[in-house]
Automatic annotation (TrEMBL):
Lineage of origin: Bacteria, Pseudomonadati, Pseudomonadota, Betaproteobacteria, Burkholderiales
Pfam family, one: Gcw_chp
Name the UniProt record assigns to this protein: TorF family putative porin
InterPro entries: CHP02001
Keyword set, alphabetical order: Signal
Signal peptide bounds: 1-18
């Protein structure tokens, strides 16, 4: 009986320290020169329009949705949109410390992974992560674990299409991503952001890599302008793609400059 009691006590402590802010609904909209997800371009290094809505309850519970265009390349059979749905619980067990637990679903309506000629598959790109995060001052960290095969990678899809250079070794459920960030307030609405991430793909170590980002943002009240240098050490053989059939493949994990203009409302 000790374990349930500890859960109850921890929950009471969390609510005791929960922010007393009222319920809120916020939105965001941005135009970006590229969409980088964990350092990898999702738009073949072309522009992306992104936007989302977030609802936060005074108890710390929250839910939200976010969308972006993605590359409709020849590998993904129709993916043109990424639609994210997420929810969780964020609370402060003590002063200056914030904990965050939740789940996030990445959905690509109408998109399916290709397979070997003559081998049918209904495998989709859709992916679900569960995560735990913490924030302390200007520092934040989050660990995300794939509750499904990592964006469709399993024995059926390995060796074909986007994963053409991979031997089949089973599913990739349990793949993990560690996200570390530190933000410096430079004053006058300017912030310097630093990020380091590490992806470990279960059973397919060739796809594991480290990504990094250094960003400078300026809040003009009406709009926020951001410039970021983003890159990875991802292996070229596994992180390159053509935007259409017959087109030369482009490396999508190399270091590049990403510009964006956004508005939160």
């Amino acid at each position: 009986m000790k374990f349930p009691l500890l859960i109850v006590l921890a929950s009471l402590a969390a609510f005791a320290y929960a922010d007393e802010a009222p319920n809120s609904l916020t939105g965001n909209l941005s135009l970006n020169s590229d969409y980088r997800f964990r350092g990898i371009s999702q738009t073949w290094k072309q522009p992306a329009v992104q936007g989302g809505l977030d609802y936060a309850h005074s108890s710390g519970l929250y839910a939200g949705t976010w969308m972006s265009n993605v590359s409709g390349n020849s590998y993904n059979n129709g993916a043109g949109l990424e639609w994210d749905l997420y929810g969780g619980w964020k609370f402060s067990p003590m002063q200056d410390l914030t904990l965050d637990f939740g789940a996030l679903a990445y959905v690509y309506p109408g998109a399916k992974l290709n397979s070997a000629p003559g081998v049918a598959t209904d495998q989709k790109y859709d992916n679900v992560d569960v995560y735990a995060g913490l924030g302390y001052g200007a520092f934040s960290a989050k660990l995300s674990i794939a509750a499904t095969d990592y964006f469709g990678l399993d024995s059926t899809t390995a060796g074909y299409a986007y994963f053409s250079a991979l031997p089949a070794r089973g599913g990739s459920k349990g793949s993990a991503y560690l996200d570390l960030n530190y933000t410096f307030d430079l004053g006058d609405g300017m912030t310097l952001g630093t990020h380091l991430g590490r992806l470990e793909v279960k059973h397919y170590g060739e796809l594991s890599y480290t990504d990094y980002k250094l960003s400078l943002a300026k809040d003009f009240k009406i709009l926020t302008l951001t410039a970021a240098v983003v890159g990875t050490d991802a292996k070229r053989d596994y992180y390159q793609a053509a935007n259409s059939a017959g087109q030369s493949a482009k490396r999508i994990g190399t270091t590049g400059l990403v510009l964006s203009v956004g508005k939160t409302f």
